[in-house]
Write a structure and sequence with these properties.
The chain has 460 residues and is mainly β. It contains 4 helices and 24 strands. Strand 22 and strand 23 form a beta hairpin. It binds copper (II) ion.
């Protein structure tokens, strides 16, 4: 996947024609389906006001049909098969063939008409998170509208009043439907140059989501509240997440929304970024402080912006270390310091597959050829130019290259570090450690001494 060409076949199985008859305009727009989890090239707007389109990580933008000045989209809620990473497919619910659904991109002031067809086994609705709209278009089932019954299509129509970063998801049996992967991104571009919305050369977006899929199975456990085992960006886990490939000097915006049950501190290596806005809109300049990590809480969205001025392959990940792992058992005891020598051979006479984990830390997991159930990702995986990366889940890379062409989102491969700029092994004498002697050195070890606080003595 390292040199995937993003432009090789976007996987679109139907594209709305540029001109359609009046009869056709009275019918439902043909839904556009996607059959691949690849990052599609940005959709340059064929009609309407021009804008600089976003790139949806391992996703795509929904084409629309212009009908008498109204942008018409057709979303089909349906069961889908989503590849989480090569070697693992999940049975999810999503839109138009994938989870998440396609990104909807419009321009401030656009009138938008969205047809939502329900092909799920239960009712659903659609909520347009963060939008200013008529109350009856807000999509809370039972509160703002009747549920969309199985097999029916509802029409939502409103003007995209605020420019910014938004998302969509059902507001019907939410616990189930979001745990199954029903969500999508929404970007409203500014109509004219906005004082608080900067122009960028690269604009990426993705949703943070999570699944609990038992190793060896394919359907999420929808009743899980906190202990998820697949931490994903746009329903992809490392090493299945595409890299963010940019040209050195590009202004970059990364838009992130969190539809999991916990917060995710998003951390970028090698650069500082400003948080320039959220689903609440662009932030005032005085509220923007340099960060290298910013927490995205549940239900929140954030825009990270920076100049990609340092060449290299820079990690971009959630800073919760359990979120950069694929399925693992949290009940495994810590074995660091426990001497297992000889035990494995004895146990393997009784249990041929017996293994011990973690007596020198967990790093062995990164390169271990461990037998896994079918359709299961290794806990720590991925290989870089220098060995196992020992990651999973919410991890990818920002790849900054001097010679990446404008508008080229293809993976440039691994960074060639200039000679003399990499950490290296010390070749001289090891310095004597002025610390405690090792336990088997024959010298007395330093003991800890308990010191009574003086204040305690004062009572006597
Ligand atoms: Cu996280």
């Amino acid at each position: 996947m390292n040199r995937r060409n993003f432009f090789a076949g976007a996987g679109l199985t139907a594209v709305a024609a540029a001109s359609v008859s009046k009869v056709a305009l009275a019918a439902l727009p043909e839904p556009v389906l996607m059959d691949k989890p690849d990052t599609a090239p940005p959709l340059v707007p064929p009609t309407g006001r021009p804008y600089h389109p976003v790139v949806t990580l391992n996703g795509w933008t929904c084409p629309w049909r212009m009908n008498q000045g109204v942008k018409e989209f057709h979303l089909v809620a349906e069961p889908v098969v989503r590849e989480i990473a090569p070697g693992m497919k999940a049975h999810l619910w999503g839109y138009n063939g994938q989870s998440p659904g396609p990104t909807i991109e419009v321009v401030e002031g656009d009138r938008v008409r969205i047809f939502v067809t329900n092909k799920l086994p239960e009712h659903t609705t659609m909520h347009w998170h963060g939008q200013r709209l008529p109350n009856g278009m807000d999509g809370v089932g039972g509160l703002n509208q009747p549920q969309i019954p199985v097999g029916k299509t509802f029409v939502y129509e409103f003007v995209a009043r605020r420019p910014g970063t938004f998302m969509y998801h059902p507001h019907a049996d939410e616990m189930t439907q979001m745990a199954m992967g029903m969500m999508g991104f929404w970007v409203t571009h500014p109509k004219v140059k906005h004082p608080l919305i900067g122009e960028v050369q690269r604009d990426f977006c993705f949703l943070l989501n999570a699944y609990d899929i038992e190793p060896g199975s394919a359907t999420p456990k929808v009743n899980t509240m906190l202990d998820f085992n697949l931490w994903t960006w746009n329903s992809r886990a490392f090493p299945g997440i595409d890299t963010l490939n940019v040209r050195q000097g590009d202004k970059v915006r990364i838009r992130v929304g969190n539809l999991t049950m916990t917060s995710h501190p998003m951390h970028l290596h090698g650069h500082e970024f400003l948080v320039t806005g959220s689903d609440g809109g662009p932030w005032p300049l005085a509220a923007r402080v340099p960060e290298v990590t910013t927490d995205v809480a549940v239900g929140q969205m954030r825009q990270l912006e920076f100049v990609a001025d340092e060449e290299g392959d820079w990690a971009l990940h959630c800073h919760k270390s359990h979120h950069t792992m694929n399925p693992m058992g949290h009940a495994v005891p810590t074995m660091i310091g426990v001497d297992h020598r000889g035990l494995v051979q004895k146990m393997q006479k009784l249990v041929p597959d017996y293994m011990v984990m973690g007596e020198r830390g967990m790093a062995d997991m990164g390169e271990m050829e461990m037998p896994l159930p079918d359709n299961t990702l290794p806990m720590m995986t991925g290989t870089g130019p220098w060995g196992p990366v020992e990651m999973g889940g919410m991890f990818s890379m920002l790849k900054v290259r001097r010679n990446q062409k404008a508008g080229d989102y293809s993976d440039p491969g691994w960074f060639q570090q200039p000679a003399g700029t990499q950490a290296y092994e010390w070749a001289g004498e090891a310095p004597a450690a002025p610390r405690a002697a090792a336990p088997d050195s024959g010298q007395p070890a330093v003991e800890l001494k308990a010191v009574k606080p003086n204040s305690h003595d004062a009572h006597h």
